[in-house]
Each structure stands twice: as C-alpha cells, then as structure tokens.
Amino acid sequence: MFRHSIHFTRTLGNFRPEPPPAHASYKRPTNPAPITTISTMDIPLFASTQFELLAAEQGAEIAEQTSLITSLPPVALQRHGLAVLNLVLSAQRTGLGGRTVLELEPDSALTTDGKLPSHGLRSGDIVRIEEQPGGAAKKKEKTELKEKGVEGVVHRVFESRLVIAIGKDDDMGVEALVTSGKRLWAVKMSNEVTWRRMVKCMETLKDMGEKGTGSELTRVLFGKSSPAPPEDLKGEVKFLDEGLNDSQKRAVEFALGIRDIALIHGPPGTGKTQTLLEIIRQFTSQTPPKRVLVCGPSNISVDNIVLRLPPDLPIVRLGHPARLLPRVLAKSLDALTQTSEAGEIVKDVRQELDTLMSKLVIRGKNRIRGKERKEGWEQVRHLRGEFRWREGKATRDLVTSSKVVLSTLHGAGGYQLRGEKFDVVIIDEGSQALEAQCWIPLLMSTGVSKLILAGDHLQLPPTVKSNAKAPKVSQPKEKRFHIPTSLEDTLFSRLLNLHGPGIKRLLNVQYRMHENIMHFPSKYLYNSELVADPSVAKRLLSDLPHVEVNENTVLPVLFMDTQGGDFPEAASDDESSSKKPSSSSQSNPLEAALTINYVRSLIAAGVQDTEIAVITPYNGQLGLLTSALRPDYPGLELGSVDGFQGREKEAIIFSLVRSNDKREAGFLREGRRLNVAMTRARRHLCVIGDAETVKHAGGYLAGWLKWVEEGGEVRYPDVADVLQV
C-alpha cells in the first residue's frame, strides 16, 4: 500500500490547538458594533460604472463563445462540449408553460447503437437548434441556416435523445425545422436575458438617483440614510426549530428586529440555510404574516431552501422546469398551475394544441399542404395565445396567494412578479452574486422594506470572466466610500464597508470540520471565533465503522511537502479560472501520481470512493487526475476549487500543483479560493505541494504552511518511491 512507499516522513508532534470553549456557553468576545453610516455613495455614478462593467463582462462571455463557434468546425465544437451533431426530430408536444417541446435523437443512418455522441450539454443549458451546415458550407449559407433556427432550453438529457423546450414565440422557426426534414444540430448559447435584466435595473437606479426618488431601503443601501437601530427581541422570539444554537438564535432575532438591512455571515459549515429557514418561518408566522421573496444566484441555492421548507407552507418556486431539481418540481409554478382549478381549462387547450400540432408535423404524402396548412398554423397561434392568457391568470393567482415565493435573482425579473408586493427580500449566497443581480428582486417587486443577505465574503466571489476594472473616481471627503471598480465587489461586502459590522451577525458554531481542520481558517479569517460543535470536533476517518486504523486515517490534517525540485510542474493548454481563459493551465505529473497513490491508500484502508474528493485549482492537473482515477473509482469526486464551494466530503485531497524555480504561485495567492479548498473536509484534509514554491503565495497559504509545520504532520515523499508504485 501507499503508506509503505514513503520512507522520508517527519512528524512534528501531534498538533493540539488550545481547546475552544464549549459552544453552549460560548460568549462572543465583544458586543455587536453599533450601526452607523460610514459614508454615502453617488447613485448615478454607481449605476454608470456598473453599465461599463456589465458590458465588458457580457462582451468577454460572447467573445469567448464566438471565438470557438466561428473558428472551430462543428465536430470540434462537439468535442468542446458546445454542440451535438447529426440530430433528427423524433417528436413534438406542448410542455409546461405552453412551450413547444422537441425531442431530438441521433440520425439512425449515422449510428449503430442509437446513442447520442459524447457531448457537454446539460439540463438548463440554452441552445440553438439549426439545420446542420455541411462541411463546405460558406459563411452566407451558414447565416441563412442560423436564421431558420430556434432557441430553447435543454429540458432533459437521455442516453439516446435530447428534450428541448422552445421559446414561447418561435412558431415560425419550429415550423421551418419540422417541415425541413433535414439533419439538425444543437449549439450551446449564452443567456442574454440575464444581462438585459441587470442593465434595466441599473437604468432604473440611475433614474432614481438623478430624480432623488427611491424607497427608504434604497437610501440605506447607498448610505443616504443610516440603518434604523434594531428592535431588541432577545427572549421574545418563540423559536420553531429547537435545534438552533445561540449564534443562530441571535441572527434570527436580529433579522426579525431590524427595520431595513441585515447581513447573516455564515462561514463554512455553520448552518446558514438552517438559520434562513427559521427566519422565513418566523416572518410567515407573524400576525399579519409577512410576504417573503427568497432568491439566490443559482438554481441549486434556491432549491436547497425549497426542499427544507415545511410541506404545509404555501410556497411557489419560479423558474424553468428544466433547471429545477426533480424533487422541487411539485412546488414549481408550472406544475402547480396544472393542478389548480384554472389549470384544468389550460389542459384542455393544451390537448387541442397537441392534436393540431401532431397533424401539422406529418411529412410525406399525408402532409397537410397549401391553404389548409396556413390556416392550421394560424389556429396554432390563436390557441397558443389563449393558452398563455389562461395560464397567465392561473399563475398570477398562484403567486399572489403564496406567502413565500422563491426564485433565482435574475428569475425575479420575470413577468410573474411584476407588480407583486413583498415585505422582505432574502438573498442566500449573497457574496457569490453580482450586485446588479441583487437589485433585480429589489426593484422589480414593490413594497420591499427589508433586505436580508446571507453569505460569506471570505469565500469565493462571483465568477467574473472579464478583467475589466472601472477607473477609480475621486469624490469629496464626505463621500469616502469608493465606487466599486469590479464586478467581484459584491453588495454583501459593500454594505459591510458602508455601514460597519453593526449590520452583521456571525454564525460561529460549525458542524462540518474536525477542530484541527477548522483551527487555521478560524484564526486567520474569522478572528478565532469559530467553534467546532462537539459532535464533529474530534471525529476522524478511523471512527468510520468500515475504515481501519492506520497512520493516515488517524490524522485530521496532513501536508505532503514535495520541496526540492523533484516534483516540477509542467505547462498545459488552458486555464481553470474563467477570468483568464487565454493563460496557460498548469499540471504536475509527479504530484498527480503522488495524489493518486494517496487516494488509493485511503480506499485500501476502507474509505469509500464516494467519501473522498480531490480538488485542484488547475484544469491541467484535473485532467491528469480524472483520467487516472475515474475508471477505477466512479464514485470519487474530482473538481476545481470554484466548483466545490458549498460542498463537503469526509476526506479532501488538495493538489497545489505549483513547483518551479521562479517561485510563481499563480492562483494560490487568492486567499478566498484557498479558504474554500481547506474547509470542505469533515474528518481528513491532505494538502500536497512544494512548500518552497507555494509559500511565496504569501497571505493565507504562507500562514497555513507555518501553522502546519509548527504543530501539524508534515511528510516528505521520495520521488523514487512514487515512481515505483
């Protein structure tokens, strides 16, 4: 086994941090800071800056995609996960929301097993379906084919077919595809709706700032007014969840008692979602009940809340059915509309639509032609209009009757919420959302007087592809707050800087990590305020019933130091970070071999592959690890740091990759990325890297190396032993 392949091991004692006080009696070192307004902000200038940054970001996204689509042939696009070729239309029907649903399968003339080729399309992706251009098609011909195509959302992906829900106003495009009988392809597109909604919000903000209008909440969000002091509810709230700890209870009381804004700071594993669930339930239990709009930057962040809300609470989940978790669909607006009384009439119209459409798609000698065909499509448009009117009324009634409405941030800009009144907006994962996104639910709804933002500004910010930075604008001394110059500057962080720590409550008891794994992040980023709950503080891999006790499974933290130049990095082709797509990604073959051996040693000791994750900042390294480990361990999770935020595993192996004479550390300088990587493990964290190189990253990583060398376990693997395995 792997543990015998390392002969040069040095143990610097068994690290034992000072035991933290038990969480039940833990008292925060200081009282919450008073709420003040540190500065104010010019709203039109803010909005104008956001315009520039959003335009640059959209441009970067479009340029990246356009570059691939225009420079690569269709086969290469499929290989890159951006297209599926050689499709034919196999079925058509009316789906949820009155959308035309097309089923596409591989052309039987080009496949022997009926399966789709390897591709990268997933449920929720926006695609364009077009007649497939020939290999020798000229640019003009390709443009003409594109004009005949339709856009839709991938609803389901099966081994042998794609199910695509088409946009609501594309009957002519559908007819062209149906009648062509030609081979088709599906190409992944960018989502322009999101950008339009953010820009619209910034236009509204700019107009409000110039006219001096806007709600009191808006004034507070820009420092024009100070947050009102919170009502002291300590001891007055009857908590519905008896399992809340003291810090969660204080956060709930604060959110209920504040008049305008509250930040819930939830470090890794501290039960942020559990706290938000209690806040939602408390608001809806008041007399009269408050109406709550709950949003998040991603569908998964919203669905996680939907799944944990009480089943008897009247809620509705907005969003395209293709993008929702299957277990959430029953609470979706589309599904609830079908089961409502008004939905029965909608069903009748849908059946009539499907019957008519089935006649119009017939090809060959039985195909409807001429005037009859034209009249048929006119009737389809008439029925679709009636369908949407009836469905629109049914959806409005459902939304209005729901105490809690849940949606992604950009989904809150849809017609379903136009004119709807909410008392409270709650945004989960607020530190991962663009600020312009956060303004969509605040400006598209009416009557909102309270905003609750939950997140952790010390983990990863929103993913931004553009490197654009707006120039800093000098302002009068009384306006000391700088206009954000990057889309990575979030509303969560801005409000914390604007009004100070008095608007924030920290959740300090974490339920994920062994206390040794937690110790350094808590000390470095969270002012040593995090406390490991007794249920997790001492647990190790060796405590799992199926795992043997050995030198690896009894360790909560291990660093394998490859210093000495024997494990050098090698350049690869592309960059893991979406921010710098043109720079080189890195790989380190020998470090990858060391990582692979260590994974195998844990599995040999009884740790299940589903209990382990291997993460790395670089796609080059990820490719090496995936190709070697995936065939033998299908349950093993491998991924980038960015893709693992919010996740956890019993064991995490983190490959740092960088090892070079220039001491270049790249991504390893980004403390928030490292914080995510090192706080995913429950029982065991193994970090593998070259200390001589990565210590030059400074900050978080340099501090962690010093911490582990002073009191943790450090091993020095021999490259010869790695090569022998």
Automatic annotation (TrEMBL):
EC number: 3.6.4.12
Transmembrane feature ranges: none
InterPro entries in the record: AAA+_ATPase, Coronavir_polyprotein_1ab, DNA2/NAM7-like_C, DNA2/NAM7_AAA_11, P-loop_NTPase, SF1_C_Upf1, SMUBP-2_HCS1_1B
Compartments it resides in: Cytoplasm; Nucleus
Family annotation (CDD domains): DEXXQc_SMUBP2, SF1_C_Upf1
Main location: cytoplasm
UniProtKB keywords: ATP-binding, Cytoplasm, Helicase, Hydrolase, Nucleotide-binding, Nucleus
GO function term, MF aspect, one: ATP binding
A GO cellular component annotation in the UniProt record: cytoplasm
Ranges where the record places region Disordered: 10-33, 566-588
Domain AAA+ ATPase residue range list: 258-609
Family stated for the protein in its record: Belongs to the DNA2/NAM7 helicase family.
Name of the protein in its database record: DNA helicase
UniProt source species: Pyronema omphalodes (strain CBS 100304)
